[in-house]
Amino acid sequence: MPYRLHRPLAAVLTVALLAGCAGPEDDRPVLDIPGGWKAEGPAGTTWPETGWWRSFGSSQLDGLIRTAQQNNQDIGAAVARVLQADAQARIAGAPLLPSVGATSDASHSVSPERTSSFGTGSSRTISDQFSAELSASYEIDLWGKNRAALQSAQASALASRYDRDTVALTVTSSTATTYVQVLEFQDRLAIARDNLANAQQVLNVVLAQEGAGAASALDVAQQRTVVAQQKAAIPPLEQQRQQTETTLALLLGEPPERLTVERQSLDDLKIPVVAAALPSSLLDRRPDVQNADAQLLAARFNAKEAKAQLFPSIQLTGSGGVQSAALGTLFNSANTLYSLAASLTQPIFEGGALRGQVQLTEAQYQELGQTYVKTVLAAFGDVENALIATQQTGLAYQAQQEVVAQAREAFRLSDAQYRAGAVDLLTVLNAQQSYFSARDQLVQAKSNRLQAAVALYKALGGGWSAGSVSIATAK
SS3 sequence, 356-367? Predict the structure, then answer.
């Protein structure tokens, strides 16, 4: 008779176990990955390393980024979130392990005084009682609920690490970009002051010409206007420089008053040559893509946990190290078997709440699948835009160098001819303004080129060792 009861129970357990393990599809969303980049990658074989910012050749930048990585509050908060996620994973894994508790009790009692029936005296009874019990409780994870909860928490902890890496990459690249901007404003200020000095020299020539009767008051007024314009250009640049340094100080996690940026020209920085990675390398290296992948994995386990909630948990309790009655009679008592079989169906009819939870987690999994695809596509877009920027800013910088060379020569010739009386002041004014503007634009073009290089490093996921990925030149 017991044998006939065991078989229905085994069938119930098998069906329930298969249903409890079911969940959304384990496969990632299908991605149509291109074989290369639309934009041509820059020539060269220099690949991002862990300290990719060192390729700019600035020891000052290296020190600033080290400080940012140690002191930045956003990175610190991300590290704290990693610790929280690790703790959550430990909490989620606790049900998979037995819990042991100990209880104790002590009592002391004195009976009322009694008189002997023989009249010879009285007596009292004093009683001391002590009891101690050690209990252990363990939940059998037949349906994989606790295991899925642990795996979801572990995936979330992994996602938090990628989130930390994303924050660190953002802070590092922002520090590099902001430092380039500080140097840009320093260079533009130096050029503005040099332009002012040149304008003042021209004014001195015009004043001398006026004294000799070769220049009019209008000529003097026009050149004084140029001098005033150059003076007016300095305060806004100084304001931008100081405000950019404030931004840099906040990235470093320090008060602005403590930050001192030593004078360094953009011309002192090297422009790294970075070859583009294949899309597969991008998917493996960008922390935001890995974060989206880990979140998708956590959602998958959440859906499995929700399905497992449709079935009961079996908890076996032992006291004092002795096998519990439930464990001892689980497969021996007909009453226990019928009771267990009945309890398997009970949670299914709890007002549809458990079924609704399953549908919710599966829909969340589908949503995160779309988010994952969007993140991957955005990563491709970032790299394409960065490659385009490195190409076009490089071409713009080369073109602007030619503009400055020609404007310098035009200003030199016009100034010499004006001193000789061969041309009027208007020719000098036009050449002067063109030269001043061209120099300022050249600094901005150099800054844009350097910032585009930083953006490409960021788009490629920062840095990695060349031997850790498969490298190939993009077509």
Answer: HHHHHHHHHHHH
* CA dist., res. 405 & res. 141, Å (int): 77
Cα distance between residue 332 and residue 326, in whole Å? 10
- Look up the domain containing 194 and give its range: 23-98+143-313+353-468
Split at pLDDT 50, 70, 90, the class of 23 is very low
H or E element that contains 99: strand 99-110
Residue 272 lies in a domain: yes
Q: Which helix (H) or strand (E) holds 275?
A: none
pLDDT confidence of residue 350: 57
Average model confidence (pLDDT) across the chain: 74
- C-beta atoms surrounding 314 within 10 Å: 17
Q: By CB neighbour count within 10 A (0-12 exposed, 13-18 middle, 19+ buried), where does 121 fall?
A: exposed
Q: What angle do CA 337, 343, 348 make, to 5 degrees?
A: 145
Residue 194 included in any domain = yes
Per-residue DSSP letters for 158-225? HHHHHHHHHHHHHHHHHHHHHHHHHHHHHHHHHHHHHHHHHHHHHHHHHHHHHHTTSS-HHHHHHHHH
Burial (Cβ within 10 Å: 0-12, 13-18, ≥19) of residue 232: exposed
